[in-house]
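Ticket #4471: structure export looks truncated?
Reporter: QA, pipeline team
Priority: medium

Steps to reproduce: submit the single chain below to the structure queue and open the exported record.
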Amino acid sequence: MEVLEEIGGMLEDILIPISICVIMPITMVWLHMRSKKHESDNRTGIVLAALEKNPNIDLEELIQKITPKSATLKEKLLKKLMWGSVISAIGIGFLGYALYMDFVGGMSVEDLERSYFCGGITMLIGLAILLVFFISKRMLAKELEAEANKK
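Actual output as written to the record:
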């Protein structure tokens, strides 16, 4: 019985990281690609239906109307700012939790190390995204100004 519990613990130690680091990202990419293909198929269906009903329709105008608008440069930068802030806050939360549990006690050293590691990595990822935001903002200042003046 102890052997089965030990094997179960080893499988848990292997399967959870594999499912989080391999299966979940692959599934997320697959779902994203599937939704993009579905959107493209819908637009194609709309264009074909419009052509069947009215063969003299202006296709360029129709395609411009049904094509989703791309995000402006400012919107893209603000999205980076938002994600960097959120991910950094999550990392700081992990680190705060780890510090609290380290101070109060009641958590094994192994779990405490995992909490510190997850918090540190998450916070560093968020800070990297924020760094990209600030560098992009500085490098694209002229483009942002031109985009603002265009509207």
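Status: closed, not a bug. The export was complete when the record was re-opened. Leaving a note from the reviewer for reference: The mean pLDDT is 88.
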